[in-house]
Specification:
alpha/beta, Helicase, Ruva Protein, domain 3, 2 domains, 8 helices
């Protein structure tokens, strides 16, 4: 019989309120735009940035504030407007809508005085569209970028994830993990979940050796002094 505790899989619900979104230089402009709603100069804005930069989290904070409906980019159409007054449409450059539907959707936003927040990986000026009118319309939308998170933000978000999981971790362990993670908030969430599971299984607070073990198991790159 193993001495390790069986780690039961409980769902972890991340906090998505505005007060839970950590502001740093990499995302400050985007936060300011989202916080300025409903005083936007247009009926929609675009928040863009690389995967793991936090744009979806920020979009969700706006969704809660604006009571917005989530709408898949591929289902954008006039019929999709329904009774909602605001919409979050994610990854529009990865899953582009039918262009005629998209153009109609933008027109209806203005006509019916509804709101939308689009997320994308690339700025609208780099999107490929065949309809010239749609291209010019999208490029005219206010667009604000989020950069890859800086070291201080990675460390702060890691602490937040661990705290959300009621896991106490020594500062030196937090620094060790944060310095070796890719600059992605998705990676931070993943390693926090893995640390939590490992700590529960071994019934002890995470240490640097345990963190090293977890990061190797999760496929995170360690610095050259620690590679086997």
């Amino acid at each position: 019989m193993t001495s390790a505790q069986l780690a039961l899989s409980f769902a972890h619900r991340p906090a998505l309120g505005r007060e839970d979104f950590l502001v740093a230089p990499s995302n400050a402009d985007a936060v300011a735009w989202v916080d300025s709603w409903p005083d936007w100069p247009a009926r929609a804005i675009v928040v863009y940035g690389p995967e793991g930069s936090g744009k979806s989290h920020l979009a969700q904070t706006w969704r809660l504030r604006a009571a917005a409906a989530e709408l898949p980019a591929t289902d954008v159409s006039g019929d999709a407007l329904g009774g909602a007054d605001a919409f979050v449409v994610e990854d529009v450059d990865l899953n582009p809508p039918v262009e005629a539907d998209w153009f109609h959707f933008l027109n209806l936003l203005a006509e019916r005085r509804k709101w939308a927040l689009f997320t994308a990986r690339l700025a609208p000026i780099r999107w490929q569209t065949a309809l010239p009118d749609l291209s010019s319309r999208m490029r005219a939308l206010p667009a604000v970028g989020i950069a890859r998170p800086e070291d201080t933000l990675v460390e702060a978000v890691l602490v937040k994830h661990l705290t959300d999981r009621q896991l106490r971790v020594a500062p030196e362990v937090v620094r060790y993990v944060a310095q070796r993670l890719e600059r992605s908030l998705a990676a931070v969430a993943r390693v926090a979940a893995a640390l939590d599971a490992a700590a529960l299984a071994q019934k002890r607070a995470p240490t640097i050796p345990l963190a090293r073990q977890v990061m190797r198991a999760e496929g995170f790159e360690l610095d050259h002094l620690e590679r086997e």
